[in-house]
From TrEMBL, chains A, B:
It comes from the Bacteria. Belongs to the SIMIBI class G3E GTPase family. ArgK/MeaB subfamily. This is Methylmalonyl-CoA mutase metallochaperone MeaB. It comes from Cecembia calidifontis. GO terms for cellular component: cytoplasm. GO terms for molecular function: GTP binding; GTPase activity. CDD domains: MMAA-like. Pfam families: MeaB.
Length: 334, 334
């Protein structure tokens, strides 16, 4: 593995705190690295910036491919920067999923926003195999906050696992949907609807306006069937047309209102406290996996065992134990 | 933690191979235990029964609560046992999910089947916190096979993560759905539809027959939009009425046909080979997590750190490293 050139810890911290985009990007690349030496460095950078993080409103956005997330973020983001906000957009790529969508494939996405100096757009790398993607996105978010961004949007495609991860790091979770035909394949699972703070019917434009209104009523009724949230917030259902820029101001007003209420009733902070504990646990898992699966003796032995595992000759659980013992015994020698 | 009385390794192995239900149940309880001493014992039992496993057709069944899974398994299972099959039914409980469904809550489920000597029904325990639930289900499946069951049904509710786990241990994956209104909240995500080998529209009875036929056509069309599977199997869409026992024979014929084709083209075995490698990786994760989070020094230190983690005073990733180092340093002393 080729080691990339790195900055001293202080340079990362200073650069990020000054809002230097170049350093911010390099710092995110650093935290995304799976090299052990990078990880140690990243931990120091994170410790340095942590006291300066936490001052943004953290918004998660999900929805299946085709629902119009890019256009939504582009035009919603434009409203935010024009109101004087500093906006960071992070995308979680649900790697290791068969139908991952194309968050990262399309380079022309959010063209206007990405050329706007008041916004910063950062996709996560594809194919990060060993868990950790969500943990890295969390660190990218904290870095963005330390760099002065006061609104962070975290985008994910609506295919399952990544929503739980995003929900675990944001204050407000927004689900984009479409009205009308094909809803059964739109495929948003009940669990995702339950975790959202707002359900937005996008593409409420042209001949689709009536259908969107109808869908809004249906979803509003359906949401009543869910148990009340402990924070006292009743999930809102709204329509918008991201492409025609209608309904977007109202969405921001709603999020602002959410932040006010949740700050007053203490839930914003108590939710973040819980998230920090989850962050600890996730990072422990990440450390365990990355140190294990990158351990040279473990890798070598695993190669030897694989044919017998595949054929069913060896018991996977007995060999898992052998590999784990090997790892523990040689932890210092790698 | 109270240690339950255990049998010697040989007694578990002999009892399971003789098809003794009582011993089978105790063996499954053993593999589900998170006690380190039980885990060691379970590994030996698994190693002993492994050569006798693998002879069943493994079928995964999912669908959201209300779709009629219990009735389906009850009456589909009845057909199988009447054809002379030995049937084991395992349920995965998606613990740690907010909307877990009620797989385990309803004790009157599958009443007829559970009193049938040719069938064996085993739910997974609720609330197993540290991953591993799916790994334990896999071991329960292998134990059932060694006990002579030649059809294993693995049931899960359609709320996300657990489907991926089930897909990773079965030969054939079956998705139950309903026709008609409310499909948007029926909430089956695209990823689950993509991984299924058959999509069954249940409750095709009474005034619902036409809607079910229509839904069948729509889903059949929709499935054409997905890329072809590498095994050459084209996912089937069928209707049935589990309660009226119609369409169930056809489903078994289809699964039988699938097994024939996949045995001939080698995919049944190559798929299982891949699954065994995943099993190894999953079990390593399970070992790491259970040995870490049950480590007494780690637990003690974590308690001390939690207030500072919650308040944001400590960096979660720095403290994760500290805890991980503590674990590695004291691995033999717990």
């Amino acid at each position: 593995m080729k080691k990339k050139s790195r900055l001293p810890v202080e340079d990362y911290i200073d650069g990020v705190l000054k809002g230097d985009r170049m350093v911010l990007s390099r710092a995110i690349t650093l935290v995304e690295s799976s090299l052990p030496s990078d990880q140690m460095l990243a931990e120091k950078v994170m410790e340095g910036i942590l006291p300066y993080s936490g001052k943004s409103i953290r918004i998660g956005i999900t929805g299946v491919p085709g629902v119009g997330k890019s256009t939504f973020i582009e035009n919603f983001g434009k409203i935010l920067v024009e109101r004087g906000h500093q906006l960071a957009v992070l995308a979680i790529d649900p790697s290791s999923q068969k139908s991952g969508g194309s968050i990262l494939g399309d380079k022309t996405r959010m063209e206007a926003l990405s050329s706007d100096k008041r916004a910063y757009i950062r996709p996560s790398p594809a194919g990060a195999a060993l868990g950790g993607v969500s943990a890295r996105t969390r660190e990218a978010m904290l870095l963005c906050e330390a760099a002065g961004f006061d609104v962070v949007l975290i985008e994910t495609v609506g295919v399952g696992q990544s929503e739980t991860a995003v929900k675990g790091m944001v204050d407000f979770f927004l689900l984009l949907m479409l009205a009308g035909a094909g809803d059964e394949l739109q495929g948003i699972k009940k669990g995702i609807i339950e975790m959202c703070d707002a359900l937005i019917i996008n593409k409420a434009d042209g001949s689709n306006v009536e259908a969107a209104k109808r869908a809004k009523r249906e979803y509003a009724n359906a949401l009543h069937l869910f148990p009340a949230k402990e924070n006292g917030w009743i999930p809102q259902v709204k329509t918008c047309s991201a492409i025609e820029k209608s309904g977007l101001e109202e969405i921001w007003t709603m999020i602002d209102d959410f932040r006010d209420k949740m700050t007053k009733n203490g839930f914003l902070e108590s939710n973040r406290q819980e998230q920090r504990v989850n962050w600890l646990q996730e990072h422990i898992r990440y450390l365990m996996e990355s140190s294990f699966f990158h351990h040279s003796q473990v890798k070598k032995r695993m190669e030897e065992l694989l044919p017998g595992i595949k054929s069913g000759k060896f018991s996977a659980i007995a060999k898992a134990r052998e590999l784990f013992d090997l790892f523990l015994k040689n932890r210092g020698n790698d």
